[in-house]
Amino acid sequence: MSNPNNVSLNINHELSFIDGHALTIPTLSILNEEGDIYEGATAPDIDKATAIHLYETMRFIRALDERMQAAQRQGRVSFYMQCLGEEAAVTASAAALDQNDMIMAQYREQAALRYRGFSLDQFMNQMFSNEKDLGKGRQMPIHYGSRELNYMTISSPLGTQIPQATGYAYGQKVRHVDAQTGELNSTIDNITICYFGEGAASEGDFHAGLNMAAVHEAPVIFFARNNGYAISTPADEQFKGDGIASRGVGYGIKTIRVDGADALAVYAATKKAREIVTTKGEPVLIESIAYRLGAHSTSDDPSGYRTKDEEAKHKGCPIERFRKWLLKQGWLDEAQDAKDKETIREEILAALKRAEKVAKPSLEELISDVYDTPIPSLQKQYEQLKEHILQHPDAYPTTAGRLK
After folding, report:
1. Could you tell me which residues come within 8 angstroms of residue 205 by beta carbon, excluding any fewer than 6 positions away?
2. Which one, 56, 250, 257, 272, has the greatest CB density within 10 A?
3. Nearest 5°: phi and psi at 289?
4. Of 114, 247, 257, 292, catalytic
5. pLDDT score for 181
């Protein structure tokens, strides 16, 4: 091999070290807080229908988050996580994809699922773990999944989806590679996008996944949501380097940092990233910078680790910024928008009431399709569980009632 170390030697005769922040990474921002395009910036080519769908999705998710946060406080659901402040990052990136691209999400990307057509009732059925839930009630609330919409079911452990996304994307690429030359013989039709927070980027799976994608040139977009906090741990206590984008450069991956509260910037960056991934068959890393306006989850109290003054500095709303731009394009009717917001709130409340009245899945759904036929050890555990529930019906009133 001519370069067995795979490095650029650039021989130097003076002793010197490269500073950890020697690389200056810019942040793409197109739309300002007043809904105007920055001087020198270029708005992406986005049509009215896409822009309106993007806005309506963000507006819907904000209303859903508000209602379900309240529902958790009322004891109607056990857990919830809001997308507050990151609606543009998630929705605009999803809007830049093809409907058949695979989405591997973390747990704050409900907007991407909604953009693709996940219904209000489907959201509610999952959160109430009822018998209409696509996941058969086996997951915590907000752990969605939809085979129809190419949205891989979410798992709670951080970062597991990152190497999985690399492997899945490599499989998407193989169909377009010439067996003799190893070169792409056509543009890749569909790719994978993998969402995760900056906290998940501290997991080993992040490093394994990105290195594997870079070496094997997997057609995957890694979308890092740097929202400032991994639950209660601020970013400056998580890593010393320049955000997550610097790591992409270190792994030899094309990288961009973007204002995650700017829907147009996110859309433009993701659109270009997808072009690179489909034509060159290699990964891209996008780092979105958007402050997490709410708590990490309903189990979290951010007042314990950040001040009201800090939160006040980041009160800019990504939805309002995009709404102002739509109004200036003449694409949005302000009066109708106000009416639609109220209608959405009413529809969400009605769907919530419907879902909480739907029966829970039967107990046997726990093991019905784990194997084609339940193996003896699993069947034994199931029988022991039934016996336990029947011995303590007061502790399991819903399930015990269906077993009698």
Report:
1. 158, 159, 160, 162, 163
2. 257
3. -105, 105
4. 292
5. 87
pLDDT of residue 240: 93
Whole-number mean pLDDT of the chain?
A: 95
Residue bearing the bigger pLDDT, 1 or 265: 265
* pLDDT the model gives residue 105: 98
The C-alpha atoms of residue 199 and residue 141 are separated, in whole angstroms, by 21
The catalytic residue among 305, 306, 382, 396 is 305
> 115, 123, 119: which is closest to 93 by C-alpha?
115
Please give the structure tokens belonging to residue 121: 């009732």
Report which of 203, 215, 287, 199 is spatially closest to residue 251, judged by C-alpha positions.
Answer: 215
Can 62 be counted among the known catalytic residues?
no
296 is catalytic: yes
Measured between alpha carbons, how far is 344 from 347 in angstroms, rounded to an integer?
A: 5
112-162 pLDDT tens trace = 999 999 999 999 999 999 999 999 999 999 999 999 999 999 999 999 999
Indicate if 305 belongs to the active site: yes
Q: Is the pLDDT of residue 220 over 90?
A: yes
Quick check: 3 pLDDT over 90? no
Q: How far apart are CA 188 and CA 226, in angstroms?
A: 28
Catalytic residue among 59, 296, 321, 323: 296
pTM value? 0.95
The closest of 222, 102, 215 to 168, measured between CA atoms, is 102
